[in-house]
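Loading example: each entry is read as three labelled lines plus one structure line.
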Amino acid sequence: MSNGIEPTQTTVEPSVDAPKTPAMGEEVVIRLDNVNKWFGHFHVLKDINLDVRRGERVVVCGPSGSGKSTVIRCINRLEEHQQGDIIVNGVTLTNDVKAIEAIRKDVGMVFQSFNLFPHLTVLENLILGPIWVNKTPRKEAVDTAMYYLERVKIPEQASKYPGQLSGGQQQRVAIARSLCMKPSIMLFDEPTSALDPEMIKEVLDVMVELAQEGMTMICVTHEMGFARSVADTVVFMADGQIVEKNSPKELFANPQEERTRQFLSQIIQH
Amino acid sequence: MADHSSARGAPAAKGSAPPRKTSFLNDQRVRGVLYQILTIGAVVAVGWYLVHNTLTNLAARDIATGFGFLDREAGFDISESVIEYSPADTYGRVLLAGLLNTLKVSIIGIVLATLIGTIIGIARLSNNWLVAKLSSVYVEAMRNVPLLLQLFFWYAIIGVALPHPREALEPVEGWFLSNRGFRFPYPVWETGWTLAVIGLVLAAVITWWLNKRAARIQGETGRRPNVLIPGIALFIGLPVILWALGGAPTAIDVPEMAGFNFRGGASVSPEFAALLLGLTLYTAAFIAEIVRGGILSVHYGQTEAAVALGLKRGLVMRLVLLPQALRVIIPPLTSQYLNLTKNSSLAIAIGYPDLVATANTSINQTGQAVEGVAIIMATYLTVSLSISAFMNWYNSYIALRGGRS
Amino acid sequence: MRQEERDARNPAYTHIEEPDEPTAGHPTQRVWDMLGWTKKHLFSSIPNTIATLVCLYLLWLIIPPFLDWAFLSAIWSSDTPDACKVDGAGACWAFVEQKHRFILFGLYPFDEQWRPMTAVVLFIAALAASCYPPFWSKWLIPLWAVVLTVCGVLMYGGVFGMTYVDNTQWGGVPLTLILSVTGIGLAFPLAVLLALGRRSNLPAIKTICVTFIELIRGVPLISVLFMASIMFPLFMPEGVTVDKLLRAIVGIMLFTSAYLAEAIRGGLQSLPRGQYEAADSLGLSYWQKTRLIVLPQALRIVIPPLVNQFISTFKDTSLVIIIGLFDLLTSAKTALADPEWRQFYAESYIFAAILYFSFAFFMSRYSQFLERRLNAGTRR
């Protein structure tokens, strides 16, 4: 599981200050309606209700084991929820393979441990999805891949293997890999937790840039600096429930719930 | 798995379209069930086809199916048997005799291969260059030549190179080596000997109990009573006393020449000797590699840590290295035991009457191929599964005693 | 992970018995210091000295007589066995001289034996090429297709003016190679399916695969060969016959596939879950995921165990003697049936053993080399 709260996290501030009022639409692109999930007898998600609008940047935080990763893993069906509805871009997640395919094509995901394919070069990692899932012609896929590699500032690493890159570079490749699928929604599952402190910033910079362009994002992270400067909404989870949900300004300055207060004070103290 | 969701429709949420309807064939669960039905269907169809053909063919050849033939008279002799057997006995009995022969060679082979294998495995790690090199030459030579070739070789050595019984080698008075096998003196079995064996078992049980007691006392007082000396005393004393109580029988049956062959004493047939030798030497090479790997797998830091605690060399081995190495060694060792047992079926090639050989003769005589092969397979499967069940139990026992998690 | 790698390269870890070996300093001194080396490795302590002396004594007992038998007093060439039957004669290599064509090629028509010879040479050349990692590329597949076709044409004949030779006349080394290569080659795809099936979350498919694998692994190869040779004819519809060679190949294939499947399953299990999840999150289908992500990685991990399985299968093919095929071991044994030469079993078996050994030993060294190379390569 996630390693809880690290002392260095609040000290890292993204270099670019994101504009506070983005072009957030009214359209709800992700709706979680009374979602419940059990691992055996363990109730991991309890009545989760969450609406995410187009262009909204949501940061999910909370102590380890609170179910925050499970929530976003349910959104692209890496985990199956047992009760309630998850609707993504108007498609309800059921056992229907076509629905799952459609959602996965449109929802990118970045993992804590990068999960690049070690047997493929960076470029091959990037064009795999477009070629096999989106049926893009190879040349076009390569062009797109190079464009995104430039965006994450490592075009020169295209022909290397993931094992030859640093953690920060790998995570940037992973972000580019998701972007190559041209998703309308990006999920980040603790993208900086496995990184050495000096590499966190380079990954956060890429994420901030993405946020500024109006990408719909759900980020599970402990980077409170990132949440403060980029997020439209911060969701605080504990024990499988959404305890509190508010704009970062409100939530940090004026937490309504005791548990949120405790959590925030623990993070900020260090 | 309880399924609460699949049938529920989407709520009429603003901003979200109604769920797309696609064919029910796109449902993951439906597909899963479908794939399984298709697979089972294919397997059943192929199976049915084969059974159907077999039945047709058997009918065409006038062969009755079923295991009734097991009660019929076998009519052929086998060269050796653990139980009483004569050609007048049934097929059932000849197969039983074969199975017991398989078990006999396997069990003795497993014990010997473990001993030799362990010694060679440790020798390969020796500081002594010569010892280490010789052991690795042994391992490479044994592992890279087919077992069957080795069996032929040993069998030929015994059959061709050793002299006829009349000129048998006699390295020790009364012990004869010839191309008819190995003959040696054997005590005439009387109550005293049975009691001596019981004494050995008793000694083992009591020593085990003493060991437990010693551990308990060490736990309570910090001092561990000596077990070694009472243990040795028990192992020597108990059998001797019981043997004396049983009348102290001393009669020994010494083999002697009578006509063209020996009479008296106990014997080991050339087939058994070749098979045992081949199986043991071959498997020992594999066991040696497993033992070596197991010892190497224990990190050197473990020895350093144990020595730093002030443990003596022997204790380091017993308390720290062995428990960790055993956990690595036991699973592959189990599969070597299974391999040895299965390889004992090569007996048929040199004429040792094991299960496969007796079943093969039965098949040839009765034409009951399906039943014969089924009996062979079922028996080996049972033996294999029992050995692996026992080893799994032992493995978890070791893991509980000496393991993390 | 980097820590593990360092551990694996740490000499203290891999050679725990010699932690105090002088690591720094003067390599040349170590090479030239014979006396020091001897003392350290052979006479460092009293038990060590005793062990050395015992070994030397054993070698003294075995080596000189063996050398005398195998070389000094050996009869290297003779048309009749009589030369070997004199007192004091050593190994009768004349036997091998007389019978080597039979041992190598079995009952293949004598005048046509250049064909199996060429096939074997071609085959071994192709194998050697495939063993060399820089040659690993897509063109190995057509190369093998061509080589195997040419071998097949050479063996069967019937075209290009070569007489037709039925596969019942094949024997010796070519047959052993054919059995092992086709056996393992056909077993491979089946093994991949079985390994995937065993990891499937569909209970029926999993059960079928587990049952098959455990059933085959629980019984000896002989019983599978028996099944193939005795029961196979019963399985076929009336009038259909399957030749002996094919039956043996099917038996070996079924047997090998169960063991291969377990090796491949090991590779599948060692893949981190994240790889599956990343593939899923890109929207790849099950078969795309398996083909593009899972198998390329899993198979790379299991190359060394695959090579070891190949060695096993190669040695196991010797069992076909029991169902009456004429492989290398059978021909070595049959060569002894000549009453004139019957007593030279040691020469015959040693000759066959050397052939088996050289191939198996080379392959096992190769597997070790691959293992080191894979460990030294990327992070895993």
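Residues 1-19 of chain B have pLDDT under 50 and may be disordered.
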